[in-house]
């Protein structure tokens, strides 16, 4: 991952958003690294999620109850602390697993790697494999284990932290926890703390709110690995919409955070905007300004997802434009050139939708014929009654004055 261009940084979130970030990390099996100052509740929130605590919002309660296993990587002084002690078995040397190692393949576990940027340099290569492949010195974690880590941002206060190298940065989605006074008060009330204690902490908020910088200094850009991770995340999120009270608005809110967690702030924002545009019909302005690759992707997505509402509005926009008095020939050509790149089935569907209006069918076909509609039909091997209908309409349209 190149850091030549510092184009992206870690997204800052509140404790409420952290529950959703943990939820999607666990559901999509994407390692999550939580940055934050000491005492901000990083490990506590992960533990609350794992045990399905009352503080977890209903929509982000895990499907399974997890065992919370916390490992302080800063305390690892030898390889044995990570992989266990050597033992002889059947004439060869093996390692007895350390006490924290999850053994039960049927048990759901959140493995919480605390203080990951304080681990000794010589152990980092081993941690890479654990995070990426769930393998540590040849020993495989059970598939039901999910990995979440925490780190303190390098500063004068955390003198023994190490800067992350690119390989370790690339293996995580990243968020930075930054609680507000109101966040803490909400938590305290759920814990039924005394009002006098809550009020004291709110007035003297320096005792509950971290001072100084929370986000790390590094910036990162996406790689093939992060794009693949984004695909897994979005596919997982799609499957949840419309179930158990999870709405489109919830999805949009979570996407805004999780895209940044995976891609960094800049590219995450760009993806969220791109995704939002994909959820709208193609406008004439887009036909005019966007490249054909983008337009093809957007129209293909509508058909693949069965978004008849978006398809209908896209076709209406094109039809209204073709029926107008001021027609830009370059836009007409781009429409046909873009449609030409679709699959034969989608070509037929798009054209059928376009000429479905009897009042303007003849005029539309006559107009489109000037820009290669006949050639477009020749590209389609998807011959059926619908295709014949287009051909008949085409002939009628060519005869029209």
* Global Rg: 28 Å
- Output the CATH class name of the largest domain: Alpha Beta
Distance between the termini: 61 Å
Low-confidence stretches: 1-8, 381-386
Describe the structure.
This protein is an alpha/beta fold and 401 residues long. It folds into two domains: 233 residues, P-loop containing nucleotide triphosphate hydrolases (Rossmann fold, 3-Layer(aba) Sandwich), CATH 3.40.50.300; 116 residues, Alpha Horseshoe (Serine Threonine Protein Phosphatase 5, Tetratricopeptide repeat), CATH 1.25.40. Helices cover 49% and strands 11% of the residues. It is built from 18 helices and ten strands. The protein has a six-stranded parallel beta sheet with strand order 1-10-2-9-6-3. It has a two-stranded antiparallel sheet with strand order 4-5. The protein has a two-stranded antiparallel sheet with strand order 7-8. β4 and β5 form a beta hairpin. α1 packs across α9 and α15 crosses α18. It is elongated and about 80 Å long. The termini are far apart.
In summary, what is this structure?
By secondary structure, the protein is of the alpha/beta class.
List the helices and strands and how they pair.
Layout: E1 11-13, H1 15-28, E2 32-35, H2 42-50, E3 67-72, H3 79-83, E4 86-89, E5 92-95, E6 109-114, H4 124-133, E7 135-136, E8 139-140, E9 145-151, H5 166-169, E10 173-177, H6 181-190, H7 195-203, H8 224-240, H9 248-263, H10 265-278, H11 284-289, H12 292-304, H13 308-322, H14 329-340, H15 344-354, H16 361-369, H17 373-378, H18 385-399
